Amino acid sequence: MNKILMEIKDNIFICRLLGKFIATIDPQTNLVDKFNSLVDDYLRECETSKRTPNIIINLAETELVNATGLGAFISCLQTTRRLEGMLILVNVPEKVNNLLIITKLYSIFTTALSCDSAVALIKAKGTSGY
Question: Which InterPro entries does this UniProt record tie to the protein (predicted)?
Answer without folding.
Answer: STAS_dom, STAS_dom_sf
